[in-house]
Structures are given as structure tokens and as C-alpha cells.
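Reference record:
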Amino acid sequence: MTGRHGGVVSVMDIGGTHVTAANVDIDTHSVIPGQCLRAPLDSGGSAEEIVSALARCARRLATPARRWSIAIPGPFDYERGIGRFEGVGKFDALRGVDLRAALTPHLPGAAAVGFHNDADAFAFGEWWAGAARGHRTVVAITLGTGVGSCFLRDGRSVRHGGAVPPDGRVDLLSHEGKPLEDTLSRRALRRVYAHATGEPSALDVREIAQRARHGDRTASTVLTQAVRALGTVLGPWLAAFEPTILVVGGSIAASWDLIAEPLCTALADTLPTRTGPIAVQPAQLLAEAPLLGAAYLDLATATHAHLSPGPQEAPIP
């Protein structure tokens, strides 16, 4: 990396089903064209299998930087680089594993490796260069293998206080007496649809969404009810935190045409009338958001700087 606010950072986004490695140009707030690679990842594999998959993806990246910034879901000790996964249905084999020590020798040219929460990385990416650019107060949600969340104010993640859930984590909230992720997550949607149809649970969310688009009422109902649950649970926290925008990303948000209306309806039913206007938008950067956010967080940490996302490009509704 060259200069105080310039240069290139190599980044990695570790998800429940895939890993992506890329080089990010700090000056242009963008992934360098041709320098982004995605590979499948089995989060239920052994520690050796997971580390090997991450290393293979990283080694395919041309001209990596000396600094690597890695976005990974929690629970994780981000400062020490050690997995704390337990009972979350993924990466159980990384519990207690020093991932920094295991991975650094396999990262080309790595002189420093930092870890950041993947939901934070997504939120900062959208705030730095995407849908939330120019907004001071942001809530960002990722919907995929689980529910990720970040409550962001003035360029800083808010994890404590009465206006946010415990540790800023929406996944810790409940709906009708059950953890939210038992209703809205990849595994939950697959399970509920399979139970409702009597079919094997082989269909993934993308296929369930396609069935909904082609008139499958069961598929439509499963998606609608799950997203309404999110709106019902999230509404009171939006009223407390008072963001000007809610950004929704993750693989399930790729079906925005199916989930936007029930989500907005549930929020409208839940939010007090005194609540100010909140824009509800899909992620603008999609899969690039956590990559850019990881680069931003690495740079901000390395320089102890607070970087502005630049002017807002459109008025807040």
C-alpha cells in the first residue's frame, strides 16, 4: 500500500458457501478489474479443508498486496484472528483455531493480515461507495446463510446502547419465541419449503425464488412470511436508531423483486408514525460491498483515520 490514503489492499470475503479474493484500489473505491476471484467453500468441512480452500483462492490472485484484510462472519475474535464458532451451523471446525497463523503462510506476499466482521464490511462498503453513500446513520442487513447486521453512525459501527440490539446483532433477536434465523436464513427457507411441499430439501433459495416468480404460491408464501418476520423484528430497532436508510444485501436479497414489498409493508406496520422517513434499498454493490468494506476498514485501522464516503448522490426520500 502506498501513501496515507492510497494504494491497493488485497481482501477476502469468507461466506458460508463461497470465498472471494480481490484487489481493491483505495483511490477509486473499486475492485480492480480482472482481479476478483470466487470459489466454492464448504463451511461444514474440517479446519484443514477450509484453510486449504481459502489458500487456493488467494493464490490465484495476481499481484497481491502486502496487506490482507479478511471479512468473516462471527462469532470470531477479530483482534486475535481466532474462531469462536459454536452452534451457528457453519465453520464449527474453526472453533479455537488461530486462523491468522494458519492462513498467513499461504497468502502471497502477506506482511499483515486483519480480520473484520463480514456484516460490518458489507455496511462500510455500501456506505463508502454504494447505496448508503452520504448517509450519516445507516442500518445494513445481510440475508444469506444467516442474518448479518450493522448499525452505523457517522462512519462508526454502534454495538452498544439502548438504540441497538445486543452487540448490534439482529441474529440474536427472536420471532414468535424462536431465533430469527430459524425463520429467515438459507437453511430455514429450504426446510420450510420442503416441509410445505413434501419435496426433498434439495432446492436452494434461488430455485425457490424462481418457482415463486412462475406462480408457485407456496414458494411465494414461504419467502413473504420470512421477510415479514424480519420487518416485524427490525422495526422497533429502526425506530430507536433512526437511520435514514436501510440497505439489504446478501444472497437472499438477490430476490429483491419478491422480498421488497413484504419487507416494506411489515416495517410500515411496525414503525411508529412519528418515525422519520427511512429509505429501504437493495445493496448497490452486491458481492463487491464486503470486499470494499474490508479494504476501507483495513485502511482506517492502519492509519487511525476516518475516511469520508463523499457526497450523497440522491436526496433521501
